[in-house]
Design a protein that fits this description.
The protein has about 325 residues and is mainly alpha-helical. About 70% of the residues lie in helices and about 0% in strands. It has a two-stranded antiparallel sheet.
């Protein structure tokens, strides 16, 4: 089913309206949100995401609804894992808590723009080259293996990326923040504030996040509209979620392992899908490979929920055991 242009435009307008709502209602006034405030806004965006999914299911059918919810849960979980990196970046630049909402909002805007570009590129690639599923699948499997075995330093120090290092080399950067301004004037001379450096760091990180998330959700649906909306709703509540579970992040010790399993699972699903539509001449003479099992999206949804639920529960059990052991 081809999604009409007016629906795309209406959806984009709705996403922009929700970002504006966040900004004008509580982000514009620099402050550190309370747990109650962060919880209320997080619940608002989660409920809104669920209602959108229900509406999409009623209009577009159960199969597409399942694809949306599977994609949303995957992207939301990846976004939670991304918060680990945001915590490190914020600490590395010593961003005052009152300004962190603004940093996250701009980071989300950058992420939406970048992911929209990657979504369009991915859709065009899939439409013209069915073998791209092989690339997506192998990439996700490799990423999952790296995430599962090579990541355990979320609490490490931040190391500036190449864009931040280059900006510091060519631009006059002050060590002090001036509210949320990107530049400030000192003794008549214009300086760049650390806020701009944070934006560069977040923006470059968003590119890396998009490289993981877009192939992952294309393993669950081939509909660009579902890919976009699942990503958008997963990102919209990220600001409030950051403050709500900031202390809980360190307790989710097995989250990366769970996401590694999810990415590997989706990677295998993509490779199997590529075998069904195989056109590479050096594989089975360029013909689809018979007898390859299919993994339905509903099963993918159950597997994703099961993996994430198990790793979350295991993380909380370990965290509780760790708190109890010193006093034992």
């Amino acid at each position: 089913m081809r999604v009409p242009l007016w629906i795309w435009l209406a959806t984009a307008a709705g996403v922009l309206a929700l970002l504006a709502l966040s900004f004008f209602t509580h982000i514009r006034n620099a402050h550190e949100p309370s747990t109650k405030e962060a919880g209320a806004w997080t619940a608002f965006f989660v409920v809104l995401s669920i209602l959108f999914g229900i509406g999409l299911t009623l209009v577009w059918g159960v199969d597409h609804g399942i694809e949306y919810f599977a994609g949303y849960i995957t992207e939301y979980s990846l976004s939670i894992d991304n918060l680990f990196v945001f915590v490190i970046i914020m600490a590395g630049f010593d961003v005052p808590r009152a300004y962190q909402q603004t940093v996250l909002l701009i980071g989300i805007v950058i992420a939406l723009v970048l992911r929209t570009i990657f979504i369009l590129i991915g859709a065009a690639a899939i439409a013209h080259f069915s073998w791209v599923f092989y690339l997506f699948g192998l990439f996700l499997i490799a990423t999952g293996i790296k995430l599962g075995f090579g990541k355990g330093d979320e609490g490490g120090d931040y190391e500036p990326n190449i864009m931040v290092r280059l900006a510091r080399r060519v631009l006059p950067v002050t060590e002090h923040y001036d509210g949320t301004k990107l530049t400030t004037r000192i003794d008549g001379k214009r300086y760049v504030t650390p806020m701009l450096m944070v934006m560069l760091a977040i923006g470059m990180t968003d590119i890396l996040f998009a490289l993981d998330s877009i192939p992952a959700i294309y393993g669950l649906t081939d509909q660009p509209y579902i890919v976009f909306t699942a990503n958008a709703f997963a990102l919209l509540g990220l600001i409030e979620l950051y403050f709500l579970i900031g202390g809980l992040l360190t307790k989710l010790v097995y989250l990366s392992l769970g996401l590694a399993l999810v990415l590997c699972f989706i990677g295998v699903k993509l490779v199997l899908e590529a075998m069904h539509t195989n056109s590479l001449p050096f594989i089975n003479g360029g013909e689809p490979i018979p007898g390859i099992p299919e993994i339905p999206t509903w099963l993918s949804l159950l597997v994703i929920i099961g993996i994430l639920a198990a790793t979350t529960i295991a993380s909380l059990i370990k965290s509780r055991a760790g708190r109890a052991s010193p006093g034992a």
